[in-house]
Each structure stands twice: as structure tokens, then as C-alpha cells.
Amino acid sequence: MAEQSKRKGKRTVGNRLFLEEEKTNTKIMDQVKTLKDLFETFMRAKELEGLRPRTLKEHRSTFKYFLLFLEQKYPSIECAIEITTEVIRDYVYYMSKEKRLWDDHTKASRQCKTDKKGLSPFTVNIRLRTLKCLFKFLYDEGHLDHNPTVRVKLMKTEKDTIEAFSKQQILDLLRQPDQRTYAGFRDYVLMLLFLDTGIRCSEALGLTKKNFDYEQKTIKVQAGLAKNTHARILPLSKKTAKALNTLIKENGIFEDIDYIFLSNYGGKIDPSWVRSRIKTYGKQVKIDNIRVSPHTFRHTFSKFYILNGGDAFTLQRILDHATMNMVRKYVQMNGEDIKNQHHQYSPVNNLV
């Protein structure tokens, strides 16, 4: 409302009369935006925040699964404002009880003829977490007046389920690659690196010659390569450093190639291909009690690092984990490991 100025005959304007009306109109515009449009707003924001391409890809994949569910169960829903807590709970129930495995994977569905229904709690939680991230963003940014995921809890999952290789299994796996061939020697060096440093598969395959210091016997995982965008230096044993140096020399046959781990044709290797190779080596030595994968090497490194006297805080830095709780999940010991540690460190055995 206009107010009388101290200057006679002059009127000034104070607070605006239609400010609240503009805010209401903006809110209405957000409410009529489609869920797909607001998802793109979310993705642009996350890209600007510096999320890694792999994480952005995961957000798109899990959102696609949610859209497929809505098309099947709630075909009339288009706007984000229509998503309620009940819809989210229905989605969790559908994933855990009703969804047929592989039915949203076009290629796999043609090959897999299983009628098994229900995803694992671990997979359900991955998809639910990304939805929680999306709707929290939309609520915090004012696009929604409620967050439909806030009261939906994650499913309970079994803890400490990924075991490590035994000493004998490690030796058996390292004997499998035919080191008389380039591919065999490369696989041997890669497994040696996994075991020596606990490095992630994607990080190892992204290493270049400049990341390797033979004199200092270290490799550098650069921030752009690390999962958590934290650069770190990983020490190497003499054996691993020597093997890496030999592999780099043999890579000299390929011109203008900087990556350390290459295919037979000098190209960069895909992580899925490495997982397949290591799984094959596991079948050759009949390891069927635990998962044979690059990630199991990471758990194996963690376990033996602690068993051999390493401290947990240094291990946390090497593994590039933000919390000690994650380190605990990687160091999983079986009954025999615990018994051996008890015999070695029991006060009764040492003092009495």
C-alpha cells in the first residue's frame, strides 16, 4: 500500500501487493510439470555438482525402471505432484514380490526364461535410494510441497555377505593365466594388482603409464578416475611393481597408447570383460563357494591386510572409503580366521 511521504504531496510504494500471488503461480507451474521434465531438472543439477558419469547413468537407469512401473500400475500419472507415499510403497512391493527377473532387460529377457519373481533387497534398495535422492531434491528446491519417499524405509539386508578368497584359492587363480601369451600375462598382472592394492576394477583399467612410478613403487589414482573423486597414492610390492614395469615395456608394440592394461589389439579394456575373464579362471579351479570377481579381490586384500597386522585407518585411506563402517564391511573374517587371531593375541596364551 502506498504510504504518505514526509515530503508533502508525495506518495511512495512500500510492500508489493501481488508478491504472494506470483509465488502461488510459480508453485502451480511446478505442480503441472511432468515427472520426466522435473527429472531432467534434477539431472542437470547433479551434473553441475560434478557427479561421475557412472552415477548419472545409474540415476537414469533406475528412473527408467520406475517409469515402466508407473506405465503398468498407474498409467494416468504424469505429474510429479501425483506421486504419493502409497505409490512409492507399491513400487517397493512390486520390486520385491511381483517383478519377474529380467523383464525390463530387453536383451537378457530373450535369453533368460526364468519365472522367478522378486529382486533382492540389495537391488531394491539401490533403486529406492535413487528415487529418494530425486524426490528430496524436488522438495528441497521447492518443486514439490511434499516428499513421498521420506517415510518409506529401505529393506533390511544381510550384512557381511561377500567373503574373501582363501590363500589356496588365490594361488590357484594366479596360476591360471598362461603367461606365455600377452593376454595371459596381462591378466596375471591385473590380478596381482587387485590383490596388492585393493584397487577398483574401473580404476585399474584407467591407469596410464604416467600414473606408475617404478622407482617409488607406487601408482597414483587420479581424482577424475577415483569413484569418490579423491586422488590417492597406492604403494606397491616389489613383485607387483616389477610385473607392471614388464607389462608396460611389452605394451611398446602398440604405438601412442598410454593405458597400462590393453586388449590384444591395443584397445582399452571394458570392466565387464575383465569380470568375465576372472570368472572363467574361477571355474577352471572349481571355486564355487564364493563369487569370483575383481571386487572379491578387493575384499581379499582388505582381510589379509588386517590379518597381517595393518591398521584400519590406513586401510580406509587405501580403499578410498569415507567411513570406517564401509571398511568393516570389507574386512569379513570366517570362523577359522577368528580362531587363529584369538590364539595369536589371547592374553591367556601370551601372559599365563
TrEMBL record:
Residues 160-343 form the Tyr recombinase domain. It holds the Pfam family Phage_integrase. Residues 33-139 form the Core-binding (CB) domain. It comes from the Bacteria. Keywords: DNA recombination, DNA-binding. PANTHER family: INTEGRASE_RECOMBINASE PROTEIN MJ0367-RELATED, PHAGE INTEGRASE-RELATED. Belongs to the 'phage' integrase family. This is Tyrosine-type recombinase/integrase. It comes from Neobacillus pocheonensis.
